[in-house]
Write a structure and sequence with these properties.
Chain A has 337 residues and is mainly β. Chain A is 3% helix and 55% strand. Chain A has 2 helices and 24 strands. Chain A binds chain B through residues 80, 82, 115, 118, 139, 141-145, 161-168, 186, 188-195, 197, 199, 201-205, 207-214, 220, and chain B through 80, 82, 115, 118, 139, 141-145, 161-168, 186, 188-195, 197, 199, 201-205, 207-214, 220.
Chain lengths: 337, 337
């Protein structure tokens, strides 16, 4: 359904969309991954945004290049530098029923800065003060960071720079001020000392973030024992008589490597406090398109739309396609511990 | 010269001090590393701040514990968790000549939060608006983060939470607003994709940071080819007729692993722009106390005091002792490329 952005690229995945209501429509910002169309059987290639020329350049190597490492199909390592075999941009899709979508022919946002040289990934959309704020993963030789952009009309987009420095992704901005400040969940990625965990940060203006605190870590011997990170933008729920936030997140376990979704119930006034957490996944890879594909056994969400007791979860399946599931909020709440 | 903070701890290192003028004195905030006094030959031990009890607890294990990994003398790994064999706090030292110091008998700041459970390290002190701002490395099971505290009198200290989430350290806050905003160099530590680099961030209030941008990366085949990070708080210099910032930083090379100091000359109005960088180290491990010790071949600064053409650099040597060197600013400038 999604045309390539250029004739020398082919679409290799359409997944992990941000999702939000916009007037009478449901808008998805799809992550579209493209790879250079192959010119020769023995070649590997990477599309990279070149900041100095302002253009997307295609780099091609022979698999026989001395010292080249192409053992991971996602990366090319040569002379101590890493390149990605695909580059992602965002494509707008619109629907009136939330199921059938028209996909734009051209990108909504694509790599345009040095820190996006390897693409933009995994957008989340939060409506605040009449503006749609889009946070996304900015990927480059400088690492995996989180950028912020905004739009009021989903026609023009303004960038606001990097809000979380590498390595940090899976950011979700809460759709309300809390005690006068903005809040976001984020997922720093410490190596060596430190656990994979979801953190919270606070901001006066959405651009500058501080007062970082860990919120939830991977749990041993569960479906989320390897790592966890933010998923859909949190939304308000009533848990009994308590106002709270429900944050659908992703958790990863190994053997075999599996990405599933669960939920965190966070205190309505202080979302650094966890009130409950899914004992079991609320969505796990079961369908063939979830269990097989570019990256098998993955369900991964960047956006969900609550309506009454239902929440419609848009998600990427196996890093290849976009799927949707309707879940019951009361079932999710009943499965918390 | 430095007494332990408790009878069951011994001082194993006094290094990496923050340094600043305070009235007629030079103040150092020394990083004092302590380890539990051994009770048995066959034991390993860690001192950890326990947030629930509010106390420093000493944990002891036999080296024969099944599954224990004590191959690195700095760490104890057991059951997937890591502990440190030493814990650091800050101790105040005062001097009227900058060479002879009186060291306080008790800590100025020590582990006091969950995110400081493994200690506080590597303080940098910046004077802004009459307040001394101390940023430091907060170490815990949650990773290596940067915390912020402040004092007006070096008697009482107020914490302001985590300003850079893990993995991030080696932060230096500029001692002036630049175009109305505060600025800091920081050193995120991406793994996999991303290079070790010094970044800049901006803040309206010192607590919330954004607009992150890379400033300088490790350079190939040099004294700083493995990693680099901030060192002393930057200070104003005139480079010819140009107002600029001089930032003394540390660079690391391997074979053998060596930490040296160099300088970055940064644009006075936009310190994300590098005007010059030391071709060769301005200080490298040469003296016996720099070349041998707990961590050999290390010179590492957290504070320097400029006066005219001289800059007095306080630095940790071999992660064991505190040393001082007077360098010529004009020599540093002449060695930039």
């Amino acid at each position: 359904m999604v045309r390539p952005s250029r004739p020398d690229l082919e679409v290799v995945g359409v997944f992990n969309p941000g999702a939000i209501r916009y007037g009478k429509e449901i808008i998805l910002l799809l992550r579209v991954a493209e790879a250079p169309v192959k010119r020769a059987e023995n070649e590997v290639a990477a599309a990279v945004f070149d900041h100095s020329s302002g253009k997307l350049e295609i780099k091609r190597w022979s698999r026989d290049t001395p010292g080249i490492d192409v053992s991971d199909p996602r990366t090319i390592i040569l002379d101590g530098r890493m390149w990605l075999t695909s580059i992602s941009h965002f494509r707008l899709a619109r629907s009136t029923d939330g199921i059938h979508f028209d996909v734009d022919a051209t990108p909504a946002m694509q790599a345009a800065t040095e820190l996006e040289a390897f693409g933009v990934e995994d957008p989340r959309i939060t409506l605040l003060d009449g503006t749609y704020w889009i946070n996304y993963t900015a990927v480059s030789q400088h690492g995996i960071a989180t950028g912020l952009a905004s739009t009021r009309d989903f026609r023009t987009y303004q960038r606001h720079g990097i809000i979380f420095s590498p390595p940090n992704r899976d950011v979700t901005i809460f759709p309300d001020r809390i005690a006068g400040r903005y809040a976001a969940l984020h997922r720093p990625m410490p190596e060596g000392l430190g656990e994979p965990a979801i953190w919270i940060a606070w901001s006066p203006d959405l651009f500058d973030w501080g007062h970082h605190l860990p919120v939830a870590s991977a749990r041993r011997n569960t479906w989320d024992d390897l790592k966890i990170g933010g998923g859909a933008v949190p939304f308000h729920v009533k848990a009994g008589s308590t106002d709270a936030w429900l944050a659908i997140y992703h958790g990863v376990t190994r053997t075999p490597l599996t990405y599933s979704l669960g939920a965190l119930l966070l205190d309505g006034r202080d979302p650094s406090k966890v009130l409950g957490r899914s004992r079991d996944p609320i969505l796990a890879p079961e369908a063939p398109y979830e269990r097989e594909g570019f990256f098998a056994k993955v369900v991964f969400t960047c956006g969900a739309i609550p309506e009454g007791d239902l929440v419609r979860v848009y998600y990427g399946a196996a890093d290849g396609v976009t799927a949707v599931a309707d879940l019951s909020v009361s079932d999710i709440l009943a499965g918390l511990e």
